[in-house]
């Protein structure tokens, strides 16, 4: 996977980043800068009712706040997007401000599509179907893992079909991301750990994607270094604003990396486990990542040496040994954060593994994986290893 003389790529990350403790106070000014006059604030009930985070953004928006929609569930779906769109339409909203983690941000991306286009969300499933920008969108992340604030993708569940719908379009990239580490302080330890591992998986998958490229690699490798140092501090010392800030930056860097280079089998498995059994996305990525590293070893010798070095793992020996050492270090890192490391531990039944392997083949992320996958039998052993067999 070394860069060849035929290398060509396009790197794009147009989202404006506003970083710093207390910078959420600039939400109103940033909304004004991009032309939002009537904002729909999108969040979830936990943040709205148990923290002051939604209130802080509401205050910052001032007279630009048209309405608040906080009925976004943890594993958001099509119904939540349609309900949010109805709220936006009733309020006459011309833009969206999202306050939350990946589920909230992706829901807001879906609402932004419909504010501009109307219709039903399912009409826009797929890649590059929009002919113009979605409604303006300011993101205030409250987790440090998804990177959704700088990605052109939204993953929204169709609960009836038990399938995650993928929306990929440069027209849904948020206009502004306000990266305020104080907005992540309320995140509980287990979620801090799981979302942090999500960021790590984004960086690693950007590296072993068939579309890896130098700019994304640079962001991914630096994100890996930061996560290794900052995430344990975020979990052990939740009030460490400096560590929270570094982790938030790592998440955004990894998001920009994978938004350009794409992801692979880790995310294909994670999407499938989430759609069928509701496994938290970051946790599913954390569990599956070491086993995909071993699966990809023969195609990713050079890549995994770079990743191992960034993660503080010795990179000597043959390719298989380096990959195995890196995989072991990733698993040990997750365990040190208090996370489960087997799908069996998160209530995925063993007898479901063949069906999950089959369903993985229909996830779009799979096409970018370094090692080609042509049938379910080829990845069933990866599922079995992740389960703990």
Question: How is this structure best described in words?
Answer:
The protein is α/β, with parallel strands linked by helices and 389 residues long. It folds into 2 domains: 16-184, Rossmann fold, CATH 3.40.50; 189-387, Dehydroquinate synthase-like - alpha domain (Dehydroquinate synthase-like, alpha domain, Up-down Bundle), CATH 1.20.1090. It contains 14 helices and 9 strands. It has helices spanning 27-33, 45-50, 53-61, 78-91, 102-117, 189-208, 214-236, 241-261, 265-277, 281-296, 301-310, 319-336, 353-360, 376-387, and strands at residues 16-19, 39-42, 65-69, 95-100, 126-127, 136-141, 153-158, 163-168, 176-179. The protein has a 6-stranded parallel sheet with strand order 1-9-6-4-2-3, with helices on both faces. Strands 5-8-7 form a 3-stranded mixed sheet. Strand 7 (153-158) and strand 8 (163-168) form a beta hairpin. Helix 10 packs across helix 14 (376-387), helix 11 packs parallel to helix 12 and helix 13 crosses helix 14. The model has no long low-confidence stretch (mean pLDDT 96).
């Amino acid at each position: 996977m070394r860069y060849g003389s035929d290398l060509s790529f396009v790197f794009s990350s147009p989202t404006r980043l506003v970083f710093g403790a207390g910078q959420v106070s600039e939400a109103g000014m940033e909304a004004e800068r991009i032309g939002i006059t009537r904002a729909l604030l999108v969040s979830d009930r936990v943040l709205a009712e148990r923290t002051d985070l939604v209130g802080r953004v509401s205050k910052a928006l001032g007279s630009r706040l048209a309405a608040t929609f906080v009925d976004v569930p943890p594993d958001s779906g099509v119904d939540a997007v349609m309900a949010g769109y109805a709220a936006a339409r009733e309020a006459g909203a011309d833009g969206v401000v999202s306050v939350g983690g990946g589920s909230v941000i992706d829901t807001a991306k879906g609402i932004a599509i419909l504010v501009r286009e109307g219709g039903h969300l399912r009409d826009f499933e797929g890649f590059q179907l929009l002919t113009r920008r979605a409604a303006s969108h300011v993101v205030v992340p409250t987790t440090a893992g998804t990177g959704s604030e700088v990605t052109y993708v939204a993953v929204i569940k169709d609960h009836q079909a038990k399938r995650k719908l993928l929306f990929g379009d440069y027209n849904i990239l948020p206009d502004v991301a306000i990266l305020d580490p104080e907005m992540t302080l309320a995140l509980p330890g287990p979620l801090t750990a799981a979302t942090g591992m999500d960021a790590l998986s984004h960086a690693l998958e950007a590296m072993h994607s068939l579309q890896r490229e130098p700019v994304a690699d640079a962001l991914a490798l630096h994100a890996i270094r930061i996560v290794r140092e900052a995430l344990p501090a975020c979990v052990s010392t939740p009030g460490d604003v400096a560590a929270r800030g570094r982790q938030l930056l790592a998440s955004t860097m990894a998001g920009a990396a994978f938004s350009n280079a794409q992801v692979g089998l880790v995310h294909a498995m994670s999407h499938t486990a989430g759609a069928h059994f509701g496994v938290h996305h970051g946790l599913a990525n954390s569990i599956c990542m070491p086993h995909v590293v071993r699966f990809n070893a023969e195609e990713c010798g050079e890549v995994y040496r770079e990743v191992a070095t960034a993660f503080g793992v010795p990179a000597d020996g043959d390719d298989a040994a380096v990959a195995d050492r890196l995989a072991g270090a990733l698993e040990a890192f997750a365990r040190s954060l208090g996370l489960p490391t087997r799908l069996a531990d998160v209530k995925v039944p063993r007898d479901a593994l063949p069906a999950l392997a089959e369903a993985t083949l229909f996830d779009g992320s799979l096409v970018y994986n370094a090692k080609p996958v042509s049938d379910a039998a080829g990845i069933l052993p990866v599922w079995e290893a992740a389960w703990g067999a």
